[in-house]
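Summary of Year 1 activities. Much of the first year was spent building the evaluation harness for sequence design. The harness presents a backbone, in tokenized form, and records the residue chosen at every position. We chose the following record to illustrate the format because it has been used consistently in internal testing since the harness was completed.
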């Protein structure tokens, strides 16, 4: 594990943007799987600014969404809509280079990723309950590849999603499983804020357990963990 402790969120974002940009500059096909949400927001703003100043061919950069929560009566789910707004549209990603994860294609995605050389980078955040991608405590099996979780009105998953999203979820939730993520060449986990200090301590210092799904990431041979000082405060 390569552990980077940044002074603050801005520095964390600069480091994160630099890692993603380095992958983008490879002179070959590059397969990226990037998170959405608040943690990478500034990193994407920095990345958009840097890319606007570079003259580079982006036709060989492909994007694979690693999870998706359907939203009721919406064209796009939570991840797709978030990434379109934060990154895909600002940098002008061609539609054919965006590989949306859906209930229709999730069973084939692992095979398709393997056929194009695997994922070069998976950039993830960390949930306060220890989840990564859509791998939640109580639902995670470390042996799983990409899988779906039914979302039924009134059940625990539905209620949890509705509370988290602030709007009504649709009828499915799909995610890269631990096995899919662990097959990537490079993992980057970004964590900021004092409210994440206790869970990142558990993730890094062990044990590896499905009760804290992200703990499995620490066994990857090439993982970079980027924390701000607030998130790192409880580490030994």
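For this record, the design step produced the sequence shown next.
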């Amino acid at each position: 594990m390569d552990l980077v402790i940044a002074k603050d969120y801005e520095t964390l974002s600069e480091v994160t943007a630099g890692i993603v940009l380095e992958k983008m500059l490879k002179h070959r096909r590059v397969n990226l799987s990037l998170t959405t949400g608040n943690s990478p927001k500034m990193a994407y703003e920095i990345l958009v600014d840097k890319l606007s100043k570079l003259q580079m061919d982006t036709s060989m950069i492909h994007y694979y969404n690693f999870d998706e929560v359907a939203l009721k009566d919406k064209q796009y789910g939570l991840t797709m809509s978030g990434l379109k707004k934060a990154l895909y549209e600002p940098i002008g990603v061609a539609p054919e280079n965006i590989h949306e994860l859906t209930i229709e294609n999730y069973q084939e995605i692992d095979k398709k990723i393997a056929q194009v050389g695997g994922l070069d980078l998976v950039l993830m955040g960390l949930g306060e309950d220890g989840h990564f991608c859509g791998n939640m405590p109580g639902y995670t099996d470390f042996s799983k590849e990409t899988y779906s979780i039914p979302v039924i009105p009134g059940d625990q998953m539905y209620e949890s999603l509705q509370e988290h999203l602030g709007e009504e979820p649709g009828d499915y939730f799909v995610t890269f499983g631990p096995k899919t993520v662990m097959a990537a060449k490079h993992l980057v986990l970004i964590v900021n804020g004092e409210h994440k200090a206790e869970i990142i301590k558990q993730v890094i210092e062990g044990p590896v357990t499905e009760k804290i799904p992200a703990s499995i990431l620490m066994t990857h041979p090439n993982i970079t963990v980027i924390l701000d000082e607030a998130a790192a405060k409880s580490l030994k």
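The chain has a mean pLDDT of 94. Quantitative recovery figures across the full test set are reported in Table 2.
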